[in-house]
Each structure stands twice: as structure tokens, then as C-alpha cells.
Amino acid sequence: MREKFSSKHPLGDAEEAEIQKMIASDPDAPELTDEQLKQGKPFREALPEL
Q1: If we measure between CA atoms, which residue out of 25, 23, 15 comes closest to residue 4?
Q2: What secondary structure letter does DSSP report for 33?
Q3: How far is Cα of residue 45 from the mean position of the Cα atoms in its chain?
Q4: What single DSSP character describes residue 35?
Q5: 39-42-45-49 Cα dihedral, nearest 10 degrees
Q6: 50: helix, coil or strand?
Q7: Cβ neighbours for 2, distance < 8 A, ≥ 6 positions apart
């Protein structure tokens, strides 16, 4: 039996749409606004100790 979503096969349009719908409905991971994206920094600059 094949897993519903797997990295071993390409996603069809319906699967991609379902995943995007789940992402959009997650209240704990809202999309960033344009203003938030402008404030982003490269990883090395934000966390130089890592």
C-alpha cells in the first residue's frame, strides 16, 4: 500500500492542491507578510554562532 504523500513519487495536481489547502489552514504557521519578508536576514547574519 502506497503512503498518501510520499517523496518517492511526483505529486499530481489534486495532491498538491490538498497539501496547499492543509498548509493554508494551519493556524500555527501563517504565511509571512511582505513586511515580514523584508525584515528577513541571511542565516549566517541572524545566527552567526551557528
Answers
A1: 15
A2: P
A3: 22
A4: H
A5: 130
A6: coil
A7: 9
In a 3-state reduction of DSSP, which class is residue 1? coil
Give tens-digit pLDDT for 3-46: 666 677 788 999 999 999 998 899 898 888 999 999 999 999 99
CA–CA distance, 8 with 25 (Å, rounded to integer): 25
- Give the separation between CA 40 and CA 33, rounded to whole angstroms: 11
Cell of residue 14, nine digits: 489534486
DSSP 2: -
* Claim: this prediction has a pTM higher than 0.85: no
Half-sphere exposure of 10 (CA within 13 A, CB side): 2
- Spell out where 1-50 has E strands: none
